[in-house]
Write a structure and sequence with these properties.
- The protein is of the alpha/beta class.
- The protein has three domains: 7-126, Probable tRNA modification gtpase trme, domain 1 (Gyrase A, domain 2, 2-Layer Sandwich); 133-215 and 414-475, Four Helix Bundle (Hemerythrin (Met), subunit A) (Up-down Bundle), CATH 1.20.120.430; 221-405, Rossmann fold.
- It contains 16 helices and 13 strands.
- The chain has helices at 29-33, 93-105, 115-122, 128-139, 143-153, 156-180, 191-220, 234-242, 285-300, 313-321, 328-338, 356-369, 392-405, 418-439, 444-462, 468-476; strands spanning 7-10, 19-25, 37-38, 52-60, 63-73, 84-90, 109-110, 222-228, 260-266, 269-275, 303-309, 344-349, 379-383.
- The strands form two sheets. The chain has a seven-stranded mixed beta sheet. A six-stranded mixed beta sheet has the order 9-10-8-11-12-13, sandwiched between helices.
- The two termini are 16 Å apart.
- Bound molecules: ligand FFO, guanosine-5'-triphosphate (GTP) and magnesium ion.
- Residues 21, 73, 77-79, 86, 125 line the site of the ligand Nc1nc2c(c(=O)[nH]1)N(C=O)[C@@H](CNc1ccc(C(=O)N[C@@H](CCC(=O)O)C(=O)O)cc1)CN2.
Length: 482
C-alpha cells in the first residue's frame, strides 16, 4: 500500500444530513486545501495554528461551492499523524461530491476503507489491536460491547500483551547469551525465575483465551433459544420481544420451520433471540429438519425459554388431575439434565385466555412440580401473554438477572477478536513447549526457538509483527472515511 500521497474521503454517512465532514490527510493536505478556502480577514490556512477552526468559503475558481468550517491539524499532531484538514460543509450529497471532486482534481486520492486508521497505525499513533478496536467502537451497540471496545482502543489489552512480551524478551536475551558462552556452561537465566515467569504467562494466556467465549457473547448478544411445542406462541413472543413482526404467526401448528433470529438490547446487554420450530413427533420431512435444528439451537444457546400454552384444555385437565403435564415435565427434565448449567425460563403463555384462579394454580403447580429446590437457582417461572404483552417485561428482567449474577460480571480484559484469539492459542502452544523443555532440563538453544515463536505470535496481536496482507485484510473491513 502506498501511503505518501494525500487522501480524501467523506467521514460522515453518505446521503443528505445537516452537516457532512470531508477529511483530507497527507503531507500536502494543508497545501491542497489552502488555496480553495477563503476566510475573510484571516491569514492563509497554512499559517494557522494546529487544532484551530475557521469559517470561510470553499471555492472552485470564482464559483462558491459552500460556506464551510475548516479545521486544521499539523502532523504529527493529528489522528493519522499526518497533516490533516477537515471540512464541515452543508450535508447535501451534491455539495459533498463537488468538494471531493474538486480535491481529487487538485491532487488528492480517494481513500480506501480504513486508510486513515491504517495510516495512524503505520505512523505509530496506535498499535494494531487499538486500530481494530476503533472499528469495534463504531460497531458497538450496547453498553458492554462499548466498554470493551473503548478499553481496547485506549490500549488496555495492548499493554497487557506488551508486558508479557517484554518479560519474555528479557529471558530470551539471557538464554541466547548463554549460547555465546556454550563452552563455559554458564546459566545467565535463572531457571527457577524462568519457571515462575512461564507459569505466570501460561496463566494469563489461558485467562485471555477463556475470555473469548464471553467476548463473543457480548459482541453478538447472548443467545436465547425460544422452544416448546407447536402453536404455544413462540413466534408471537419473539415478535413481542423485538417489538416488530419478525416471524410469521398463525394458528396452524408447525408454522415455523426454519429458525428466525434477531438481536435487541435489554438494560444495556445484547440478547440474540432464536425462534425455533415447535418440538413434536411428525412425519413431515421439512418440519423434522426444523426440529433437528431446534435441538442444535438449544445446544448453542446460553439461555432457554421454554413455552407452555396455558389455554390448552388438555393441559389444564391434566394439571387438575395431577397428571404428567402432557409430557412437558419430561421435556423440561430432559433439558435440565442435558444442560445442568443452562438457565431456563419456563414461560406459561396465553394467560389472557385463562381465569385468575387458573393462573394461580398454574403458578403453584409448576413451582412445586417442575422447579425443585435444588434447581431454583437457574430456573425461573414467568406467566405472560405474548399477544397482549402482559408479563413480557418481567421475563426480560429474569434474563438480565441471569447475566448480572453470571459469569459476565468482571473487569478483566476480554478478548473479542478472532484474530487475537488465534494468536493467543498459538502463543500458548509455544509457551507450553517451553514449559515442557524446562521440565525436561532442555538446553537453552532449543528453548530459545520456542520463546521466539511465542514472542512472534504475541507481536502479531499488537502489530509489532505484521504483513501487508494482514493489514489489507483488517482495514478492508473498516468503513470509508475511518
Ligand atoms: N472531527 C473529528 N472528530 C473525531 C475524530 C476525528 O478524527 N475528527 N476522531 C477520529 O477517530 C475521534 C477523535 N480522535 C482523535 C484522536 C486524536 C486526535 C489528535 O489530534 N491527536 C493529536 C493531538 C493530541 C493532543 O494534542 O492532545 C496527537 O495524537 O498527536 C484527534 C482526534 C472522534 N471524533
Ligand atoms: N390468546 C392468545 N393467543 C396467542 C398468544 N400467543 C400466541 N397466540 C396465538 O397462538 C397461535 C400460535 O402462535 P405462534 O406464535 O405462531 O406459535 P408458535 O409456537 O411459533 O408455533 P409453531 O411455529 O407452529 O411452532 C397464533 O394464533 C397466535 O395468535 C397469547 O398470548 N394469547
Ligand atoms: Mg412459530
Amino acid at each position: 500500500m502506498i501511503y505518501d500521497d494525500t487522501i480524501v474521503a467523506l467521514a460522515t454517512p453518505p446521503g443528505a444530513g445537516a452537516i457532512a465532514v470531508i477529511r483530507v490527510s497527507g503531507s500536502k493536505a494543508i497545501d491542497i486545501v489552502s488555496p480553495l478556502f477563503h476566510a475573510k480577514g484571516e491569514k492563509a490556512l497554512e499559517e494557522q495554528a494546529s487544532h484551530t477552526l475557521h469559517l470561510g468559503h470553499i471555492k472552485d475558481g470564482h464559483r462558491v461551492i459552500d460556506e464551510a468550517l475548516v479545521s486544521i491539524f499539523h502532523g504529527p499532531r493529528s489522528y493519522t499523524g499526518e497533516n490533516t484538514i477537515e471540512i464541515s460543509c452543508h450535508g447535501s450529497p451534491y455539495i459533498q461530491q463537488e468538494i471531493i471532486q474538486l480535491l481529487t482534481r487538485k491532487g488528492c486520492r480517494i481513500a480506501q476503507p480504513g486508510e486513515f486508521t491504517l495510516r495512524a497505525f503505520l505512523n505509530g499513533k496506535m498499535d494494531l489491536s487499538q486500530a481494530e478496536a476503533v472499528a469495534d467502537v463504531i460497531a458497538s451497540d450496547n453498553e458492554a460491547a462499548h466498554q470493551i471496545a473503548m478499553s481496547q482502543m485506549r490500549g488496555g489489552f495492548s499493554s497487557e500483551i506488551n508486558q508479557l512480551r517484554e518479560e519474555l524478551l528479557n529471558f530470551a536475551s539471557l538464554i541466547e547469551l548463554e549460547l555465546d558462552f556454550a563452552e563455559e556452561d554458564v546459566e545467565f537465566a535463572n531457571r527457577e525465575q524462568f519457571n515462575d515467569l512461564i507459569k505466570r504467562i501460561t496463566f494469563v494466556l489461558k485467562r485471555l483465551i477463556d475470555s473469548f467465549a464471553v467476548g463473543n457473547v457480548i459482541k453478538n448478544g447472548i443467545p436465547v433459544a425460544i422452544v416448546g411445542e407447536p402453536n404455544v406462541g413462540k413466534s408471537t413472543l419473539l415478535n413481542a420481544l423485538l417489538n416488530e413482526e419478525r416471524a410469521i404467526v398463525s394458528e396452524i401448528a408447525g408454522t415455523t420451520r426454519d429458525t428466525v433470529e434477531d438481536e435487541i438490547t435489554i438494560g444495556g446487554m445484547g440478547f440474540r433471540f432464536i425462534d425455533t420450530a415447535g418440538i413434536r413427533a411428525t412425519e413431515d420431512v421439512v418440519e423434522n429438519i426444523g426440529i433437528k435444528k431446534t435441538f442444535e439451537k438449544i445446544d448453542q444457546a446460553q439461555v432457554v425459554i421454554y413455552l407452555i400454552d396455558a389455554s390448552h384444555s388438555a393441559l389444564r385437565a391434566s394439571l387438575s388431575k395431577g397428571e404428567n403435564l402432557l409430557g412437558i415435565q419430561t421435556e423440561i427434565e430432559e433439558i435440565k439434565n442435558k444442560y445442568p448449567q443452562k438457565p431456563v425460563v419456563i414461560v406459561v403463555n396465553k394467560i389472557d385466555q385463562v381465569s385468575t384462579e387458573d393462573r394461580s394454580s398454574f403458578e403453584r403447580e409448576i413451582q412445586e412440580r417442575l422447579i425443585t429446590d435444588s434447581q431454583r437457582k437457574n430456573i425461573r417461572l414467568a406467566l405472560i401473554s405474548a399477544k397482549t404483552g402482559e408479563g413480557v417485561e418481567r421475563l426480560q428482567e429474569f434474563l438480565l438477572d441471569f447475566v448480572n449474577t453470571g459469569a459476565l460480571k468482571n473487569d478483566q480484559t476480554i478478548v473479542t477478536n478472532a484474530r487475537h484469539y488465534d494468536a493467543l492459542l498459538k502463543a500458548l502452544e509455544e509457551i507450553t513447549k517451553v514449559q515442557e523443555g524446562l521440565n525436561a532440563g532442555l538446553s537453552g538453544d532449543l528453548m530459545a526457538i520456542d520463546i521466539r515463536q511465542a514472542l512472534y505470535h504475541l507481536g502479531e496481536i499488537t502489530g509489532s509483527i505484521s504483513t501487508d496482507d494482514l493489514l489489507g485484510n483488517i482495514f478492508a473491513n473498516f468503513c470509508i472515511g475511518k
